[in-house]
Amino acid sequence: MTGKNKTIEEDKNHFNGNWFFIGINFLRIVFDKNPLFCLFQNQSMNNDQKNTFDFFESQLSENIKLLEKTKQAIRQTALLRVSVFTLTVIGIYFATGLGMEWVIGTGFTGFGIFIGLAVRHAKLFKKKQWYTTLIQINRKEQKLLNGNTEGQDEGGEYLEEEHPFTFNLDIFGKRSLFQLIDRSATRGGRQALAALLRNPLRDEQI
What are 78-97's pLDDT values in tens digits? Predict the structure, then answer.
């Protein structure tokens, strides 16, 4: 290669290199970050979403198992209550021939056990409601991770056409930001979230 051709080739490579970096800088301006970083970030976000979904899936499986165990314990406790009550009545009947002390002792013991089982039964029902609620929560989170907002409160009462951005940016309504992030359990909580979305905090307030 002659000196002239070598110089032309170097200029060509330099020109192509400049265009490459010009393109990179242009994309950096558009995306406000390195485009290669954008690709890795999207992959990372997908992995995070999968990890989050798997977390809720494991929690769901665990709570379903605990719910089944609780239901079984409820059935066993109910059977014991019936058995204790029946045996207590039979015991009192036969104790009448042995004296009042036997009647009182049998009744006190039998009904004491019965009351204890009734208390346990009530606690198990609370545990059943607890695990049922946890299952509903985990299923709801999985549904929202998949972008399914069906059944979620739309916050339609907070829509204002005159508002500078909420009406046009899907802050409220179907498939809105409000539907995706609302986890409030009270009306006051919903109103507080809606107020925050309509009037976001400034940097100096955060």
Answer: 999 999 999 988 888 888 88
CB within 8 A of 150, min separation 6: which ones?
143
Residue 122 has pLDDT above 60, yes or no: yes
Helices 100-145 and 35-95, packing angle to 10 deg: 160
Rounded Cα distance, 189 and 181, in Å: 12
The backbone torsions φ and ψ at residue 168, rounded to the nearest 5 degrees and listed phi first, read: -100, -15
Name the residue type at position 86: T
Question: Which residue pairs, CB below 8 angstroms and at least 24 apart, start in 96-105?
Answer: none
**Coil, strand or helix: which one is 197?**
helix
pTM as predicted: 0.61
DSSP category for residue 170 = T
Range with top average pLDDT, 23-27, 61-65, 99-103:
61-65
Q: Which residues of 19-49 are buried (b: 16+ CB within 10 A; e: fewer)?
A: eeeeeeeeeeeeeeeeeeeeeeeeeeeeeee
User: CA 67, CA 57: separation in Å to the nearest integer?
Assistant: 15
**Element holding 48 (H helix, E strand):** helix 35-95
CA 183 from chain centre, in angstroms, equals: 9
Q: Which two tokens stand for residue 98?
A: 């042995």
